[in-house]
Amino acid sequence: MNGLRRGWLAAICALAVVAAACGTTDKSSSKKPTDDVSTSVPDSGTLVIGAEQEPACADWISSCAGAVWGVWTMQEHTMPRVFDVVEVDGTWRYVPSPLLADAPTVDTDEAGAQRVTYRINPAAVWSDGTPITSDDFAYTWEEIATGKDVWDPTGYDQIEGVDTSDPQTAVVTFKEGEPFGSWKQLFGADYGVFPSHILEGKNRTKQMSDGYDWSGGPWKIESWDRGVSVTLVPNDAYWGTQPQIDKVVFRFIENTASEFKAFESGEVDAIYPQSEPAAVKLIEDGVSGGQSLYTADTGNVEALWINNAKAPLDSVAVRQAIGYSIDRAAIVQSLFGALGVNEPIQTLNPPILSAYADTEAWADYVPDLARVDELLTGDGWAKGGDGIYAKDGKKLSLTIVTDTGNQRRELTEEILQAQLAEAGIELKIKNQKPDQLFGETLVEGNYELALFANVTTTLEPGLCAIMCSGNIPSEDNDFSGGNVTATNVPEADALMKTVETSTDDALRASSQQEADRLLAAAQVSLPLDPLPNIALWSDRIDAAISDNPILAMFWNMNTWRLEG
Fold first, then answer.
1. β partners of residue 250
2. What are 437-479's pLDDT values in tens digits?
3. Are residues 360 and 492 in the same domain?
């Protein structure tokens, strides 16, 4: 899965019969987690996992760390966080992580401001033995709220202060009159908590960009060989469940076809691949000695993302014409029909947050060439003799970009190219390597159309992080913020801010649903599919593997064992 993280389940059967027997039913592995392993020493062995995307950097606060594979390969295994995402009675929920002594409490101070109290587990230490304290919470908040080049400051910028008078208790107080309903996403999977005793007073980005040798999670980064792999080893100082494997190597294989070959040949033990034709075929054909899971109940939304600030895409009429030019149902059926996913997604909210979405917001955008002509001629365009619309002597010619080596997205581009040409819009394809696309091009706004997935890193609802105008990256804010489409719909802004701030779930749902309708009316981007998740792993891995919608298949990697 290549895509951007958003600051902000799994069917499993024998590999040979998964497509026929499992469909998209959500189940987890039949293997049980290892019992009583918190004091066990690691078993010998090296686990090799194929990773489809190399992050541009490992400074998780910086805009260069927008690639979700950075979270999956390094961040979630080394950064302590206040909540884990765990399946409880068939539903993925937030539960306090080993970092905390108990669940955080929420109340109001004397002035009526929202206050969250985190009591830190006294056993929680950094890998050098230094206790994790409230100073670390305060440092993390200040770096995100006041620093430059921040991926997404949402929520942190509403904090008034962090009381550090008790080292084992961090009291976070929000600004008076600015409650934050999505407070559970803070100090969580998106960023975690950073070590103040190591980083304070130093250039954090310089210290972390190429990896770091400290950890507050079950694993440490042993090495990062750029362009080749990231290697993790157990953090001996971790106070929770100790890893059972000596070494984990995430090997970068950005060409999906090569990734499948590596898995089939046994060069890698597990892959979490793009939902491509090759993946579907492998599941249908079956591979001996392996297992799989797949699901459309994900935190992903694959979309045709539109740069609303780039002419002629700054015209609502042009964006709407694109929406009426594309047969999304045909695209989804051709790509994922074999997995039982046949309908396009009609919201930019991921499936796991559908309760807070208008799941039919984009349903009106179906192929309608008469509507395309009406919109474009009304906007001053006229169709030329070559069948392409033009205005003021300039053709309606657009360029799309996605990550190189992604066969499914390249196929999607070809389909889009043909469909848009039939509607009178020229589409050129100019793809880039993932690190350039996700680390530079998108955040700097140097594109017109882009094809990728937004991957949520929170169970909290809302699109403000990627759709509110205040989160548009620019030179003025050092390209901070996740709104890489430069979407600017003021009426939707207010509604999406309500989703973030309100503690009333019903109001949050109705506000996001109305915002969805406004965003769809402006056709700010075009949702395509829920991008089903697929995981494949060797029988050599003895583990309860499931597809965590936030932390992917790697969320409990410290409980995995190797056989043979």
1. 49, 230
2. 987 899 899 999 999 988 777 888 889 989 999 999 888 887 8
3. yes
